[in-house]
Amino acid sequence: MSSRQYSSLLDPSRTPARTIWMLAWPVILDQSFQTMVHYVDSAMVGSLGAVATAAVAANSSTIWLVNGMMYSFGAAFAVLAARQIGAGNNTAVHHTVRQALLAVVGFSVVITTLMLSIARILPVWIGVEDQVVPVAGTYMSIIALAYPFTILFAYMANLIRSSGDTRSPLIANIITNIANIVANYLLIFPTRQVTLFGWDFLMPGAGLGVKGAAIGTAGATALSALILFGVLVLKDSPLRTPFRGVSWKVDWNVMRQVFRLGTPHALERATLSIGQIILTVLVTRIGTVSLAAHHLAITAESITYMPVSGFSLAATTLVAQSLGAQKREMALDFAKRSLRWGVMLMSGTGLLMYIFSRQLMAFFSPDLAVIELGSRVLRIEAFAEPFFALSIVISGILRGAGDTKWPFINSLIGMWVVRLIPASILILGFGFGLEAAWGCMVADLVVRGLLNYRRYRKGTWIDAWKD
After folding, report:
1. Mind giving me the DSSP string for 232-248?
2. In the chain, count of helices (H) and strands (E)?
3. Tell me: the pLDDT tens digits for 65-100?
4. How far apart are the first and last CA of the chain?
5. N or C: where does the chain have the smaller number of CB atoms within 10 Å of the terminal CB?
6. How far is Cα 399 from Cα 439, in angstroms, rounded to an integer?
């Protein structure tokens, strides 16, 4: 794709609807495909039993925490690059890309070392049952070794999408997720007799269980990161930067801008992820079946909110490029349309989740107790999906404008005041079960969505970059 094609995102001869959908549909398809792959992975691990599922669940919130913070700073580099692309300043874009790569190296050393150091003790902190601890520690140790690629992938995907190219990440993810499914299938299960279309044959397998799932995930992550790095280096776009004859010193002016944009977003993600960790600890007190149902229900729910991120990412890119080009009304129009379609999409997927909640849970686990409990909490959660859409898409709009403070504040209120304090009281004080925890989650999502919508309606976010 040429530089001219990238800059045409703001071409007034193209309708705003066409531009938004041009950016959103590859992300929607990408996220939907990733959700399906995650479903298959979870079903593979779930078939090993509640202990295996709990081992993965014990690490999930911590992984979300670290990945979310790394994604936040990658998104900050992307917003900065999108502004520069909108302004037509390719020299500044190239400089931002090089600074992003330097940040990848620095974060990779720190995060990999940190995750390896806590891998064996994290399950003990979480408070899982004794038989889960060694399996969970092994899983995290393997995932930790892939963090350089996890961070590289987050930064490359954000930068490439900020230029208007949402198809390259889609293609990369399709390739790598297919590889992930095949690798997991061969690594998790032992050699066994398989019947396919009436033919019986011996399917080889390593029989590594949860360890095999971690290896497959780590390998797929590395493949994704390398593909997207190749796209950045080789594909003709405003992001393609020379590697020789240029400065590779850290530019602290750029880093300060990135930290100003990324820190509130990172704190927002940290607030949500730490809250999820605490909620996981609370659910662990209820029992292994509840922990397994909680983890698998969260996985099932992702079918409703992952596709909506397409409109959130489209809004971030288009608002940032529009404001970089000094086109305020265009930014407002893109924001309004992205929000409307995001809420409509998530309301529809929430309805489907309510109707097929039991079938979704049965896909992940053969355990009838896990299926029944997970189905009940999914139906509770379905009522919050339109408000969750408000939160997701508006966060993308505000991020594109550089207004990342208020989503953090709103998340802090929702997660800690509305979700965790009442859940702690209901579970620890009154002995309520998983349904109470998910009821508090619904209240959080409703409050957070309404608070974000209030910020959006005020309209002051359009000038946030000047603050």
Report:
1. HHHS-STT----SSS--
2. 19, 2
3. 888 888 889 999 999 998 898 888 989 999 999 999
4. 35
5. C
6. 29
Token pair 């910020």 is found at 455
CB 312 within 8 A of CB 345: no
Could you tell me which residues come within 8 angstroms of residue 382 by beta carbon, excluding any fewer than 6 positions away? 304, 350, 351, 353, 354, 357
Report how far residue 329's alpha carbon sits from residue 138's, in angstroms, rounded to the nearest whole number: 52
Q: Residue 72 sits in which domain range?
A: 3-466
Question: Which residues, in sequence order, are CB contacts of 432 under 8 Å at separation 6+?
Answer: 426
Pairing between β-strand 190-196 and β-strand 199-206 as defined by DSSP bridges: antiparallel
CA 320/CA 430 separation, integer angstroms: 48
Phi, psi of 248 (to 5 degrees): -115, 25
Radius of gyration of the chain (CA): 22
DSSP letter assigned to residue 189: S
> What type of residue is 28?
I
Q: Where are the alpha helices (DSSP H) in 237-367?
A: 252-286, 288-305, 309-324, 328-355, 357-364
Q: For 138-179, how does the pLDDT look when each residue is reduced to its tens digit (9 = 90+)?
A: 989 999 999 999 999 999 998 998 888 888 988 888 888 888
Give the three-class secondary structure for 49. coil
At 194, which helix (H) or strand (E)?
Answer: strand 190-196
Q: Which helix (H) or strand (E) holds 206?
A: strand 199-206
Q: Are 51 and 288 in contact (CB under 8 A)?
A: yes
**Which pLDDT tens digit goes with each residue over 320-371?**
989 988 899 999 999 999 999 999 999 999 999 999 999 999 988 888 999 9
Q: How many domains does the chain have?
A: 1
Residues pairing with 202 in the sheet: 193
C-alpha to C-alpha distance for 157 and 241, rounded to whole angstroms: 16
- The pLDDT mean for the chain works out to 87
The pTM score is 0.78
250 phi and psi, to 5 degrees?
Answer: -65, 125
Length of the chain: 467
Helix (H) or strand (E) holding 202: strand 199-206
Give the DSSP letter of residue 419: I
Residue 159's closest CA among 313, 332, 322, 331? 313
In sequence order, the β-bridge partners of residue 194 are 201
Tokens 């806590």 found at: 118
Cα separations in angstroms, 325 against 68, 144, 145, 240: 29, 40, 41, 20
